[in-house]
Amino acid sequence: MKLLTSVEMIFATMTDHGLFVAIGGFVVGIFCCLLPFRRRRAGADGAAVVDQNQQLVAALHNMPQGLCMFDGEQRIIVCNHKYAALYGLTPEMVTPGTRRRDMVERIVANGIRFADEAPESYLKERTEGVSTSVDKIHKLADGRIIAVARRPLAGGGWVATHEDITELKQREASFQLLFDNNPVPMWVYDRDTLRFLAVNQAAVEHYGYRREQFLTMSLPDLQSVAGDIGGTELRAMEDHVGATDWHAKADGGLIEVAVYSRRLRYAGAAAALVSVIDITERRVAERRIAHLAHHDMLTKLPNRAAFTERLDATIERAQGSGESFGLLFVDLDFFKEINDVFGHVVGDAFLCAASERLQRLAEDNFVARIGGDEFVIIAEGPQPLTASAVAERLIGMSSEQLELQGHKVEIGLSVGVALYPADGTDAKTLLANADTVLYRAKEDGRGRACFFDPQMDSKIQQSHALLRDLRQAVERDELLLYYQPQAVVDGEVIGFEALLRWRHETRGMISPAEFIPLAEESGLIDPIGEWVLREACREAASWPQPLSIAVNLSPVQFQQRDLPQLVHRVLLESGLAPSRLELEITEGVLLSDSARALSLLRRLKALGVQIALDDFGTGYSSLSYLQSFPFDKIKIDAKFVRNLGANPQSSTILRAVIALGHGLDMSVIAEGVETEEQYRFLAQQHCDQVQGYLIGRPLPVAHYDAAVGRAPYAEPGRALG
Ligand code: C2E
Ligand code: MG
Ligand code: MG
Questions:
Q1: What confidence tens digit (pLDDT) does each residue in 531-582 have?
Q2: Beta-sheet pairing, 493-504 with 548-552
Q3: Cβ(210)–Cβ(233) under 8 Å?
Q4: How far apart, in whole angstroms, are the C-alpha atoms of residue 481 and residue 564?
Q5: What is the chain's Cα-based Rg?
Q6: Site to substitute for ligand 1 among 584, 671, 693, most atoms within 8 A of C-beta
Q7: Ligand 2: distance of its center to the CA of 679 in Å?
């Protein structure tokens, strides 16, 4: 029974230590010992017990570990063949009852001992008893590595398993060798804490962190900087094959890497083995190749392939957004001649210089070189304005001269423009149309830009020409003011509106409706508006009668910060009483930045001038404008007066606006009064003032000498002009 208790204990110990393999053999031992006893007791079952016993003995001798069990007197209870073979003993040398000392002596005599011990000490140590559990790895003098697990038995003996793990250790060592010496940077990291558990030499060298430093770091440290430029979160990078990421090296440099990662267990932790391949240089090379494939070697501009891609993408985007864009086909005039006369070196230098300028003048628009001296530009933005602005800048470059290796050459060019979607909705059509029109531009004498749509072309050409002339109009004294009387309903003229006229040297008188928008677009409205103001005030100040003078202001003039200052200066210069000046503005002034406009209006009003709201009833005519600023006057647009009689709503609207103005304490003037009926209706409705051909047409002031008091009044009242 004592033995049984020990067996149970050993059984438990071995289970604890995962030594299950030993159990079979161990049980065999028990049965060997108990055999005589069992035989006596078993009686009729004896044969079955013998069978069982033989099986257990077979199992004991065939287990992969050596097993040996000693009693309290250090005699063998049971020892299997494997144990004997491990130490060069014959089965007879390890029969039950053999003294352990004799067995050890034989082992030593066989030349087997611990690698680092003398035979005597080995013998001494080996012959001492065992009272505690021991797990040891022994290196034998012959190079074998034996894992030994010993467990004490209750009766003073012990049981031990011995296993030859030489091969396993060799395999482990070669794997370590493979990791350490792998030319590919590798590491193992803990998947929970993300800390590095092991790094190989290649990783240390490639990243530049010292090994000790590396082992205190975790994955985010490697990615911290790189994370901002699109690095992949490695936390989610288990079992990755070739995912790319950005890593920071110790010197702060960033590298692009392909990451290969596989989950494993390492030193008991859930870990992953990662190897990385630095693809930074490869990517640079790839980008260089892609750049070469998409760029022209000589000028460094995008080439035809890049242009085709870009045009397709632009069309696709425009289809989605409904926006238009312009395609400019540019051809350098006389390139062939330059090449022939000065040679290819100068020809190449010419192309490069021209490309550089094209790119500069095209500003943010895409420029490509698609042939010898052929370039294209994709101009995105409102059309045809954007395309014509780019074309105009390019044509402006035509006259520029280049100094190339001692030769003076002119960069002349012609431009053909096709607009999406008007002149084509696919790349082929657009390009063909731009090309067609380019040849027309060349035929027309080069140094020109032509639009595909001839109407657009002539409109743009005309407005370009007009704008060119307008720039000179102020200096050439081509601008003049006409004056149109404004009268109260009893017919007395109380003031004049100054209306701008342009006497063009070849085209005759041009309407402000035609050139004011051009002046506004080009910014010319500022000097022109200033001239009008100065001229009108100077003129009115010279009148013997203190009549009012109305001057129109463009919304664009309100972009100027110093508009009130300008008005103030002009009033001082002219000596005109501020109360005689009436500034006519349209609701366009209040439309964009009304807070700013209102503050300018208040400053103007503070000068003592009158403010009138012109063209009321057109546009939005929001009543909130009337509420937001105390206008002195509302000018009802001519269209309501014109429609009187024809359109019953007009009379209602006129009546309502007059009442509205009076309710708001503003006087009301009706524009475009041409007939007696219109006049009578307005008088009945108590409209304060009238302006129109019936009272007088816009004319040079000389026609109104009498009205302004410079000559006796010829005909009082209406129809002055
Ligand atoms: P507006 O300020 O509403 O001027 C009234 C327009 O109606 C003038 O056209 C005038 O000639 C016209 N008109 C006056 N009475 C009659 C009439 O009985 N029947 C008809 N059919 N028309 C009449 P105009 O002179 O061609 O000026 C057109 C617009 O150009 C003006 O409209 C004004 O907005 C602008 N404008 C004129 N001069 C200037 C200026 O000096 N500066 C600015 N910024 N704009 C100006
Ligand atoms: Mg006006
Ligand atoms: Mg008007």
A1: 999 999 999 999 999 999 999 999 989 987 799 999 999 999 999 999 999 9
A2: parallel
A3: no
A4: 22
A5: 52
A6: 671
A7: 19
Tokens 């000389």 belong to 702
Alpha-carbon distance 402 to 409, whole Å? 5
Ligand 1 within 6 A of CB of 653: no
**pLDDT tens sequence across 20-73:** 333 433 433 443 444 443 444 444 456 777 777 888 888 898 999 999 999 988
Ligand 1 contact via 554 beta carbon (within 6 Å): yes
For residues 677 and 643, what is the distance between their CA atoms, to the nearest angstrom? 12
Query: How far is it, in rounded angstroms, from Cα 269 to Cα 456?
Result: 76
Contacts of 404 (CB under 8 A, 6+ apart): 342, 346, 349, 350, 353
Q: Are 299 and 372 in contact (CB under 8 A)?
A: no
User: In this predicted structure, what is the pLDDT of residue 68?
Assistant: 93
| pLDDT given at position 202 | 95
Provide the H-helix boundaries in 94-144: 100-109, 119-127
CB of 693 shorter than 6 A to ligand 1: yes
Query: Ligand 1 within 6 A of 531 CB?
Result: no
Residue 129, SS3 per DSSP: coil
3-state percent helix, strand, coil for the chain, nearest multiple of 5: 45, 25, 30
What the block records as the tokens of 430 is 């657009």
Helix axes 676-684, 648-663, angle to 10 degrees: 40
Q: How many CB atoms lie within 10 A of CB 213?
A: 15
Compute the distance between CA of residue 252 and CA of residue 247 in angstroms, rounded to an integer. 9
Ligand 1 atom closest to the CA of 584, numbered from 1: 2
**How distant, in Å, are the alpha carbons of 92, 218, 423, 599 from that of 270?**
49, 15, 65, 70
Question: 457 pLDDT band (50/70/90 cuts)?
Answer: low
Please return the burial class of 302, using the count of CB atoms within 10 Å of its CB with bins 0-12, 13-18 and 19+.
Answer: buried
Burial class (CB in 10 A: 0-12, 13-18, 19+), 719: exposed
pLDDT band, very low/low/confident/very high, at 720 (cuts 50, 70, 90): low
How far is the C-alpha of 718 from the C-alpha of 487, rounded, in Å? 8
Q: Whose CA is nearest to atom 12 of ligand 1?
A: 672
DSSP class per residue in 609-626: -EEEEEEETBTT--HHHH
Q: Is residue 698 lining ligand 1, measured as CB closer than 6 Å?
A: yes
For the chain, give the mean pLDDT: 85
Per-residue pLDDT tens digits for 221-250: 888 554 444 444 444 455 667 788 889 999
Report pLDDT digits (tens) over 274-318. Answer: 999 999 999 898 888 888 888 888 999 999 999 999 999 999 999
**Nearest-ligand number for the alpha carbon of 532:** 1
What is each CA distance from 411 to 266, 356, 406, 443, 518, in whole angstroms?
A: 71, 12, 15, 17, 29
Please work out whether the CB of residue 535 comes within 6 Å of at least one atom of ligand 1.
no
Q: Is 484 in the pocket of ligand 1 (CB under 6 A)?
A: yes
CA 499 / ligand 1 centre spacing (Å): 6
- Give the whole-number percent of the chain exceeding pLDDT 70: 87
**β-strand partners of 605:** none
Sheet holding 449-451: strands in order across?
A: 366-369, 374-380, 325-332, 413-420, 449-451
Is the peptide bond preceding residue 630 cis, with omega within 30 degrees of 0? no
H or E segment at 669? strand 667-670
For residue 318, give both structure tokens. Answer: 């425009």
pLDDT class of 677 with cuts at 50, 70, 90: very high
pLDDT per residue as tens digits for the range 358-395: 999 998 899 999 988 999 999 998 888 889 999 989 98
Cα–Cα distance measured from residue 65 to residue 60, given in angstroms and rounded to the nearest whole number: 9
**581 within 8 A of 615, measured Cβ to Cβ:** no
